[in-house]
Amino acid sequence: MEIKKILFATDFMAGAAQATAYAADLAERYGAKLYVVHVIHDVGKMTAWYAPKVNLSELKKTMEEKSKQELQQCCTLGLGGYKNVEYRLLTGVPDEEILKFQRENNIDLIVIGTNSRKMAYNRRIFGSTADRVVNYSPCPVLTVMPTGEEGPESKDPKLCSAGEIRF
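Above: the chain's sequence. Below: its structure in token form.
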């Protein structure tokens, strides 16, 4: 099996923070290029229903700026010095954009953290984005469940990862 390109999709939550190390380790072991991707959910499709008076261009600009900061902070800490990395900030529906990026860039492996929830009988279910990526990806997907340990997730309440804007 040849793995030349790895896509690491992050939403900056605990599962993604812990998955960063897996993505970097796999990329280093295979000598693969690592694409770190964050998808900003297209809020234009949702805001008319939730908040019709939102300035969408300002909201989008703020989300992009904060996402870039988060990519630098989150991934710099977890990549362990791995250098063959390209960062991408995309806009759209997260699972659709991840799968589109995979197809357009011939990605060999996707690494994604999950925001799993415990259900009855200690059974875990994936978050909806990870679930759809696993179900529809034409390439293998490594999912990383949060262990409960704190990762390099930001605590700044203005950033996406602090819980104010979650998609």
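Helices lie at 14-30, 44-50, 56-78, 94-105, 128-136.
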